[in-house]
Design brief:
The protein has about 270 residues and is α+β, with helices and mostly antiparallel strands. It contains three helices and 16 strands.
Length: about 270
């Protein structure tokens, strides 16, 4: 009895007595136990049209299939608590829906979680067989945006300061009727002749000298006519607490979250 080089499949030599039935049985048993094969339930990729896939396979798009027709696969699915769906609950069960999805190893294979796919980040634990996670695009929440600053110029704060201004000039000659104008001053002349303690008579003659200036607003004598002069003005203080509008950039849309990917068909052995 001879054996093949790679897989040690038994075959009869020319010198062996003929025993067709036994030899074929040995070859069949060796093929089952030693040849690489696609186990029932295994998922494979197919780069070509779905019509060309083997007859023992079905595409995986989440469809419900018969528990009777695919009894052996149903046994596997039932033992795993139907990770892709139990169909109608009695006559069907579901295959995995792998449309637009890649596959990732279960996070706790071997008994210890690697914590590479977690519910805290992805929203679904990677320890759940058949769980589907991830999205093509992601819209960032405020808590996911890195801490940063926005710079903006507001002009300048108004500090305490003074303003200088020029008055309208020297008071000119003018007359008044009624009440005196408190906003200016008048020269008061000293008269010769009858002087009635500050009251000027019609016959009094002016001496010609200015002794003082009488303010109509205060009733007091001032030092002379109003000359051009400056007034110091102080503002009310620095600006109070306030807000400035700053225009932010960005539209709030989703950003691409898809890794480099190639599209193919995916199928599973069902028979």
């Amino acid at each position: 009895m001879g054996t093949t080089t790679n897989y040690a499949l038994r075959y009869p030599e020319l010198t062996d007595p003929p025993n067709v039935q036994s030899d074929i049985k040995n070859l069949a048993n060796d093929a089952d136990s030693k040849l690489p094969a696609v186990p029932l339930g295994s998922a494979l990729e197919w780069d070509y049209l779905p019509a060309s896939i083997p007859s023992w396979a079905l595409l995986s798009y989440g469809q419900a299939i018969s528990r009777t027709t695919y009894a052996a696969l149903n046994t596997l699915a039932s033992a795993a608590s139907y990770p892709h769906g139990s169909g109608d609950g009695s006559t069907t069960f579901n295959l995995a829906d792998k449309r637009g999805r890649i596959s990732a190893g279960k996070d706790d294979m071997g008994g210890t979680a690697a914590s590479r796919i977690t519910a805290a980040i992805s929203g679904t634990a990677g320890t759940v067989l058949g769980a589907a996670v991830g999205n093509e695009g992601v819209t960032l929440a405020i808590g996911a945006i890195p801490s940063h600053d926005h710079g903006a110029a507001t002009g300048a704060q108004s500090a305490d300061h003074s303003h200088s201004g020029n008055t309208s000039g020297q008071s000119a000659d003018h007359t008044h009727g009624g009440n005196p104008d408190p906003g200016h001053a008048h020269n008061v002349l000293y008269y010769l002749g009858d002087y009635d303690y500050g009251y000027v008579a019609a016959t009094d003659q002016p001496w010609g000298g200015v002794i003082a200036t009488y303010s109509g607003g205060t009733g007091q004598y001032t030092g002379g006519v109003n000359q051009n002069h400056l007034h110091g003005l102080t503002t009310g203080g620095v600006n109070q607490n306030h807000y400035h509008g700053i225009t932010a950039q960005g539209g709030g849309g989703a950003h691409l979250n898809t890794q480099p990917t190639i599209i193919c068909n995916k199928f599973v052995r069902v028979l």
